[in-house]
Write a structure and sequence with these properties.
single chain; Growth Hormone, Chain: A; about 75% helix; 3 domains; mainly alpha
Length: about 475
């Protein structure tokens, strides 16, 4: 184990700043969605969806291999490289002159995020004194929750000037974090990691999820029975089979098959993926309704979205207390049901005349309460039944599942919403979208009881892996 840093507070601040930047970017981009579409005239909703999906898919596929590469060759180097890539890609996103150029640089952003996120967590653990490690990891993870709460409002203010500021804001933060990290963050690596991870398997996974997403978002325009849609499904199946075969043959697979034989871990991944679908879909659907149907500005939308994320840290604390008496799977199931109920409530309340306080806010608060009960519990409990040496990998895999679910959630919105013309058609399409993601939330609730760990420490909130804090790999998205 590397020696703790002589300046652990300063190092934690620098690493948390980078985690905050990466997480803030996710919520800001959602608010900027509509303005990007207006700027790139003629861009369809399905094309715009790739601004979100390309990032989620690449991040999901590379998170585990990037973390292991950083462990193998040096976490500081991996963090600095990831932060530099993320910062440069952010500037390039801001300068993009077309939708596909923007999507390409979003892919590059995701590569940087996949490098910096696990490396920063490893550096937090390595630089902290042993008695302060758990606290340091919680502070690092809390920056993600803070970004979620501030992101919509900050995004709204930035988009009022231009959607390009959504990406430009990362540049000065990234430069400051780079200089500070180079000067003060100590070097760290895991001497036990000696093999290169399965990069081919990661690429095959990205192809599979990308093809599945492509089929979903383009199916309405191509035709669900068209040759192009069938080809997308075929590529998705082939990519997934290739990923499974690669995982079985490679010494260091993206997902170790043995991990999925641990019941609680397998169900945690299923729950994380299913829960992320309504989580991502609810955010995008509500934003699109307020901006495209009610005509809200980005600033007004940002402040309207903010109350939901503010519920998350409050009810995460409630879930932590309940976990001492109630199996965590049941708490997560309740949270999933509340997310679905929030969507249904909103679908039954909205109408043509903007009335945020009675139409959107109640369902949004109910959904935020559900997220607070479910998401932190999923992430903190997923690796509880795994051997300590596999806890970090397990946490990263669950986050990968969550990012895949995010891409599928955005795709669900695009597929169900379509391109309605006129209020009546839009109201019907949005109502179907709210009900569709509510149905997936029910599926997540059905899967959740299976994720209850069997270990005695599993109910202890976010402390199931206090030594390395790996159960709190939550900063991204």
């Amino acid at each position: 184990m590397p020696k703790p840093s002589q300046r652990p507070g300063l190092v934690l601040t620098v690493l948390s700043l980078a985690a905050f930047m990466a997480s803030l970017d996710v919520f800001i981009v959602n608010v900027a969605f509509d303005d990007i579409g207006h700027d790139f005239h003629g861009t369809t909703l399905s094309q715009l969806s790739w601004v979100l999906n390309a990032y989620a898919i690449v991040y999901a596929a590379l998170l585990v291999p990037a973390g292991r590469i950083a462990d193998r060759y040096g976490r500081k180097g991996g963090f600095l490289l990831g932060l530099a890539v993320f910062t440069v890609a952010s500037a390039a996103c801001a300068a993009s002159d077309g939708i596909w150029v923007l999507v390409a640089f979003r892919v590059l952003q995701a590569v940087g995020a996949a490098l910096l996120t696990p490396a920063s967590l490893g550096l937090v653990v390595a630089s902290a004194r042993p008695e302060h490690r758990a606290r340091s990891v919680r502070i690092w993870a809390a920056t993600g929750a803070l970004a979620a709460a501030l992101g919509p409002a900050v995004g709204g203010m930035l988009v009022e000037a231009s959607w390009r500021w959504v990406f430009l804001v990362n540049v000065p933060i990234g430069i400051v974090a780079l200089l500070a990290a180079a000067a003060w963050v100590p070097r760290s690596r895991d001497e036990s990691v000696s093999r290169i991870p399965d990069v081919l398997g990661a690429l095959l996974l990205a192809v599979a999820i990308g093809a599945l997403t492509l089929g979903l978002v383009e199916g309405p325009s191509w035709g669900w029975g068209s040759g192009r849609t069938d080809a997308a499904w075929a590529v998705a199946v082939a990519g997934l089979l290739g990923f499974v075969l690669s995982s079985r043959r490679h010494a260091v697979p993206v997902i170790e098959p043995a991990l999925l034989r641990v019941r609680a871990f397998a169900w945690s991944n299923a729950t994380a993926l299913l829960f992320a679908v309504p989580f991502a879909a609810a955010l995008l659907t509500n934003i699109l309704w307020m901006q495209q149907v009610w005509g809200y500005s980005a600033l007004r939308t940002g402040f309207a979205v903010a109350p939901g994320p503010l519920m998350v840290p409050i009810f995460a604390a409630v879930a932590h207390r309940l976990a001492a008496r109630i199996p965590v799977g049941r708490i997560v199931a309740l949270g999933c049901l509340l997310v679905g109920a929030g969507g249904v409530l909103t679908s039954l309340s909205v109408h043509a005349t903007p009335d945020y306080a009675t139409s959107v806010l109640p369902g949004w608060l109910v959904g935020g309460i559900g997220v607070g009960l479910a998401l932190p519990s999923i992430l903190s409990s997923a690796a509880a039944d795994l051997p300590p040496a596999r806890a970090a990998t397990g946490a990263a895999v669950v986050n990968m599942s969550r990012q895949i679910g995010t891409a599928l959630g955005v795709s669900l919105v695009v597929a169900v919403l379509g391109t309605p013309v006129g209020y009546a058609a839009a109201h019907t399409a949005f109502r179907h979208t709210w009900w569709a993601f509510a149905a997936v939330a029910v599926l997540a609730a059905v899967a959740a009881p299976g994720m209850t760990p069997t270990t005695a420490t599993a109910s202890d909130g976010a402390t199931s892996s206090p030594a390395d804090g790996s159960s709190l790999l939550v900063s991204e998205g």
